[in-house]
Write a structure and sequence with these properties.
Blueprint: H1 2-22, E1 24-25, E2 30-31, E3 50-55, E4 59-60, E5 64-74, E6 80-86, E7 91-97, E8 102-111, H2 114-121, E9 131-133, E10 137-141, E11 147-151, E12 155-159
Parallel strand pairs: 4-12
Antiparallel strand pairs: 1-2, 3-5, 5-8, 6-7, 6-10, 9-12, 10-11
Length: about 160
């Protein structure tokens, strides 16, 4: 029985030695703890990276017209052709926008009075505060011939 226990102990010790030797560098007998990280430095260039923004006043009065500034910027690496900006109130053909180029335009929006809204929608109708202006859509054709669409931000104008 003692010989079986001795053999099992020797086998266990041998397994530990084999395991430890696989985890050490035999030339300097130190544990190998190197972490290998493979990184690849790549640069992704987008053929269609267009940004549409809309800015306007933060406050306005009912019964006035406000100017909304719209811009479309090509942040991509190649030109975008047949660019159009559209909303329910306008349809602008911006043509070709080269890489890094911005095209801008102004859009005027009338903010009605409560009485003007009530003429169309009844005595209880009022102008919402803040006054909400939805964004506009931009479509264009990228360098591969695909038609792409993005949307601008929307605006809230506080009424005083």
């Amino acid at each position: 029985m003692k010989s079986k226990i001795g053999i099992i102990a020797i086998m266990g010790l041998l397994m530990v030695v084999v395991f430890v030797s696989g985890c050490t560098d035999q030339t300097n007998n130190q544990t190998n703890t190197s972490n290998v990280t493979n990184t690849t430095n790549t640069s992704t260039v987008k053929a269609f990276d267009v940004k549409a923004t809309m800015t306007g006043p933060s406050t306005a009065k009912k019964g006035t017209t406000v100017s909304i500034n719209c811009s479309v910027t090509n942040q991509g690496s190649s030109q975008v052709v047949d660019v159009k900006a559209q909303s329910q109130d306008f349809n602008r053909n911006l043509g070709t926008i080269n890489a890094g180029q911005t095209k801008s335009f102004t859009w005027n929006v009338y903010i009605p009075t409560d009485s003007e809204v009530q003429e169309d929608f009844g005595d209880n109708a009022t102008v919402s505060n803040p006054f909400y202006i939805g964004g506009f859509a931009v479509t264009g054709t990228d360098s591969s011939g695909s038609i792409r669409t993005i949307n601008s931000n929307s605006l809230n104008i506080n009424l005083s």
